[in-house]
Amino acid sequence: MSFVRVQVIGGGAWGTALAQAAANAGRAVTLVVRDPALAEAINSTHRNEAYLGDQALSANITARADYQSLFEADIVLMVVPAQVTRHTLQAIGPEALAGKPVVLCAKGFEAGTLDRQSQIVGELAPKALPLVLSGPSFAVDVAAGRPTAVTLAGADIALAEQVAAALAGPSFRPYAAADLVGVELAGGLKNVYALACGAVEGAGLGLSARSALLARAFAEMSRLVDKMGGQTGTLTGLAGLGDLTLSCTSEQSRNYWYGVQLGRGRKLAEIEADGHRLAEGVKTAPAALALAQKYDVDAPLIAAVNMLLAEKVRIDAIVAGLMARPLKREGEN
Question: What is the percent of the chain with per-residue pLDDT over 70, rounded to a whole number?
Fold first, then answer.
């Protein structure tokens, strides 16, 4: 199968960065954005200044504000927010995606349905071939050509390997994997834990507390992945420990940054009023808690993040409550 033409749906920082990575891998890339003015600006200046500043973009990237060229694509990258995936797929229609690898790049679960991204594709574009891209990566690094390694998972490992090879470039390395469920769960859950770790930092509770929370987050994530049919071994790789560590320790992570602000006592409405785009973990946290309850998984950290977002209690009180939980052997559920 020839993978020459790549269509990236979503002109934000991550979508533009992945378009850049695909172009650097030698692909002909079409970047679909919502605003025709933005498409014109990208085509004339070879920059997406609103999201990536002065970063120069490859001449192999052409931007447009419609889906007309989608039928010609060999690979489609869906890089819209997790809560927008369903609406976008409805606008595209199933015929345009039939038989094509559709790489899902959003990390999160749909509010209400609790669906993973691949489940939404399975419902709305049943003949598409869903894959999931996840792992420790910041858009600015990928766009600038800094070394980045990620996981590309699909139920058909041979297809995942072919698409990974097509997207691999000098500084962007996707590793193929077969655990679609585990990779999707890890990608969504790490955003929730990043909020918690950021809040610990913002409240000045210390690096020891943050490291302990990070370790317990990994254990909690493992329980949920196991119950939902994923492979816990996936969590020791890029999509698990790699992404969890990056997202929970750097203010370049929007979720971690949001957590820091919450830990300092700021309200969500106040943060958003300053013009900051909402972090995915804010929408994912209630869905993650509902999933934990559905699968009867003890998830005190996910519950704590939901209490924090509901502004029912401060992070220092939450941590104190976690420290007061009954002692047990490490590794016990």
Answer: 97
Cα distance between residue 73 and residue 64, in whole Å: 14
Alpha carbon distance 134, 218 (integer Å)? 16
The dihedrals phi and psi of 26, each to the nearest 5 degrees, come to 95, 10
CA 157 – CA 303 distance, rounded (Å)? 35
227 is catalytic: no
* DSSP character string of 174-187: EEEES-HHHHHHHH
pLDDT at 325: 65
Confidence of residue 331 (pLDDT cuts 50, 70, 90): low
Residue type, 327: L
Residue 327 pLDDT > 80: no
The tokens of 42 are what? 């990208």
Q: CA-to-CA distance for 307 and 286, rounded, in angstroms?
A: 10
Q: What pLDDT is stored for residue 262 in this prediction? A: 92
| Beta bridge pairs of residue 172 | 148
pLDDT confidence band for 241 (50 / 70 / 90)? very high
Catalytic residue among 100, 107, 127, 190: 190
DSSP label at residue 301: H
Residue-wise pLDDT tens digits, 94-107: 999 999 999 999 99
Joined together, the tokens standing for residue 162 give 């072919």
Distance CA 115, CA 255 (A): 21
What is the rounded CA–CA span in Å between residue 282 and residue 304?
A: 13
- CB-based contact 226:234 (threshold 8 Å): no
Tokens representing 282 are 């804010």
- Sketch out the chain's domains with CATH numbers: 5-178 (3.40.50.720), 181-323 (1.10.1040.10)
Residues 31, 61 contacting (CB under 8 angstroms): yes
| Token digits of residue 44 | 């004339």
